[in-house]
């Protein structure tokens, strides 16, 4: 493997509370890494950790040392989440069994991108993970707009959902925003279902309800965060 191309990612498995685990790992792992591997960069959020290594050999040595350290502390590394990942991008043509990992709701993997000059390149870049996208879709379904909020107006719905959707966009849209927006598109369908439940003239008329929303979005494009991003229902004729 080329230098600066390897990540070690792992998750600690234990029974202590998140707060106690964070305090414990601050001393059992953070200080230990700084003392024994001062030249190796790492990030830790609670019990999720990324360790940056320059070569596969270094990654294996560091991983073995970490595993031994955790045994001393009465902990164990997660058997499936702990792995060495090759950060493939332009200039790193090698292949490896693992070339992607999830961290803090993002999936890091080789992706096509453009630089400031408009030239395409392959970089090891983050975008919203499949798990985070599923969680967003689940939350939108749990809102049950059509079943529980059909007595409210569109303005009421906007006041309810916009703070949450704005948070999703601000976090998951920081990198590869189009991937995040693609997940949020499902909200227009939920709005159309709400309209069909609220107004008798739209019952069993999915396309008509979507066109009605599209006309409203054209008149008031800032009503919903999703519409502000340019993802609006089709207005129709």
Describe the overall structure.
The chain has helices spanning 18-36, 56-72, 130-143, 145-148, 154-172, 177-184, 186-198, 206-219, 225-228, and strands spanning 6-13, 41-45, 48-53, 76-77, 83-86, 101-103, 106-114, 120-128. The strands form two sheets. Strands 1, 2, 3, 4 and 5 form a five-stranded antiparallel beta sheet that branches. The protein has 237 residues and is an alpha+beta fold. A hairpin with a 2-residue loop joins strand 6 (101-103) and strand 7. The termini are far apart.
Record the SSE blueprint.
Layout lengths: L5 E8 L4 H19 L4 E5 L2 E6 L2 H17 L3 E2 L5 E4 L14 E3 L2 E9 L5 E9 L1 H14 L1 H4 L5 H19 L4 H8 L1 H13 L7 H14 L5 H4 L9
Antiparallel strand pairs: 1-3, 1-4, 1-5, 2-3, 6-7, 7-8
Shape designation: elongated
- Overall number of strands: 8
Task: Give the termini separation.
Answer: 57 Å
Helical segment tally? Answer: 9
Spatial extent as radius of gyration: 23 Å
The helical percent reads: 40-55%
Low-confidence stretches: none
Going by helix content, strand content and strand pairing, the class is alpha+beta
Q: Secondary-structure element sequence?
A: EHEEHEEEEEHHHHHHH
Mean pLDDT, as a whole number?
Answer: 88
